[in-house]
Amino acid sequence: EALKSGEKVRLNTIRLMRGQLKDAALAKRDDLTEDEEVAVLTSAAKKRRESIAAFTEAARLDLADKEQAEIEVIQRYLPKPLSEDEAREAVAAIVTELGASTKKDLGKVMKEVRARYRGQIDGKLASSIAGELLS
């Protein structure tokens, strides 16, 4: 579809992502599960966000715009991200469910958040919310 419509950024991003998924499958020596595919795509989006920050700092807005366009393509294939309020509710529910009460429980909470909401909640956001709730 991207090839027919001439959307070069979308086409190149899809080709790159397919290559990364294939490389991950070869490294595993087996087909990827859906969670593993989401992890690869999430990692790719995260790398692009970091690149955007670096390009913006270096006043290379043209490259930052290109990276942003790639993120938008990648996000079409990821689960819908939760809003900050939804993320706060989800993390609070996990904290309550696990009976977590101190900062020592942060690792257990984050492990469960990653397991249930991979690709839907940013790790930094979840960690800060959990930290607030456990303090």
Describe the structure.
With 135 residues, the protein is mainly α. The chain has seven helices and no strands. Helix 2 crosses helix 4 and helix 5 crosses helix 7. It is globular. The model has no long low-confidence stretch (mean pLDDT 91).
Summarize the structure.
The protein is mainly alpha-helical and 135 residues long. Helices cover 76% and strands 0% of the residues.
Helix and strand composition category: mainly alpha
Written as H for each helix and E for each strand, in order along the chain, the element string is HHHHHHH
Low-confidence stretches: none
As a percent range, the share of strand residues is under 5%
How many individual helices? Answer: 7
Mean pLDDT: 91
Shape designation: globular
Q: What portion of residues is helical?
A: over 70%
* End-to-end distance: 50 Å
- Please summarize the sheet with the most strands: none
Beta-strand segment tally: 0
Calculate Rg over CA atoms. Answer: 18 Å
